[in-house]
Amino acid sequence: MNPILRGAQVVVFGGSSGIGLAAAAAAKARGAEVTLVGRTASKLEAAARAIGGARTAVADIGDRHAVEAAFQTMTRVDHLVVCAGSFITGKLADSDPDQLLAALHERIAGPVYAIKAALPLMPSTGSIVLTSGQLADRPTGQGTSVIAAAVRGVEALARSLALELRPIRVNAISPGFVDTPLFDVFGPEDRAALFAQVSAGLPGGRIGHPTEVGEAIAFLLGNGYTNAEVLHVDGGGRFV
Ligand SMILES: NC(=O)c1ccc[n+]([C@@H]2O[C@H](COP(=O)([O-])OP(=O)(O)OC[C@H]3O[C@@H](n4cnc5c(N)ncnc54)[C@H](OP(=O)(O)O)[C@@H]3O)[C@@H](O)[C@H]2O)c1
Questions:
Q1: Is residue 82 part of a domain?
Q2: Where residue 156 sits, what CATH number does that domain have?
Q3: Which numbered atom of ligand 1 lies nearest the CA of 177?
Q4: DSSP-derived secondary structure for 106-162
């Protein structure tokens, strides 16, 4: 078992689904105890069952008071993982700018609230992983400009906080296309068509599985000399 994660308390925002749930499972497999945080109690309970047990807390990461209340139920946080995020998209010409800018609040203010509330509970050996995404490096022209700016900002936040919060380590994960419920907004047919189109363009001919990103997050948590890093797990997608 990983000596850094064995017996560690790991809190995962966005832990009820997809990449966050896979990260929680990977941390558990390395001996950690996990707390899953999300907005939907029923999803959290199902996710906790799926990984053989976890604490849960309901909070919207964009709601400062709800985030603070979630941490008030905890006594120690060794590692914090932020995967919470929804797919807020739309072309600027056709959209309400404030609706698009909600992505900035969720992805920048959200981690800031969570880190601020977690810090008093974190030991100097602790670490944080934030979630960026391929959009930070590869524009699509398909209504993802504001969310791209938000995730690029996440990378800057991680690098900068790695110096500011030292010796607590701060890293970011940048997934490419990964098969998770994030894409349920498209409906089954459009989702299948999108995945087929993306897969055809990727060097490996397929999109990613959440466990592949979850394992990479567990690596970032459990490797004590990896800091201020943005780890891309995108099948090479940012270059094609
Ligand atoms: N899948 C991909 O291809 C991909 C690629 C690049 C980056 N990412 C990023 O990776 C992260 C995880 O995505 P995923 O694919 O695993 O999506 P997912 O399966 O939809 O999971 C998102 C998780 O975040 C929670 N969540 C969403 N908004 C939240 C909020 N405001 N406050 C608290 N919890 C919130 C969701 O639960 P509730 O809805 O119940 O709150 C859920 O647990 C996201 O930030 C996403 O943008 C994903």
A1: yes
A2: 3.40.50.720
A3: 3
A4: IIIIHHHHHHHHHGGG--TT-EEEEE--GGGTS--SSS-HHHHHHHHHHHHHHHHHH
Domain count, the chain: 1
Query: At which residue do the structure tokens 């897969």 appear?
Result: 199
- Write out the residue range of the structural domain in which residue 67 sits: 9-239
Q: How far is the CA of 14 from the centre of ligand 1 (A)?
A: 6
Spacing, Cα 60 to ligand 1 middle (Å): 12
| pLDDT, tens digit (0-9, with 9 covering 90-100), for 52-70 | 999 999 999 999 999 999 9
Rounded distance from Cα 226 to ligand 1 centre (Å): 24
2 within domain boundaries? no
Smallest CA separation from ligand 1 atom 45, residue: 85
The residue count for the chain: 240
Q: Is 60 strand, coil or helix?
A: coil
Supply the residue whose CA is at minimum distance from atom 44 of ligand 1.
85
What value does the mean pLDDT of the chain take? 97
- Whether residue 104 is contained in a domain is answered as yes
Token output for 141 = 């022209």
Asked if residue 94 belongs to a domain, the reply is: yes
What average pLDDT does range 140-163 have in this prediction?
97
Alpha-carbon distance 189 to 192, whole Å?
5
State how beta strands 55-58 and 169-175 pair.
unpaired
CA dist list (Å): 155 to 34, 82, 101, 160, 208: 24, 12, 18, 9, 21
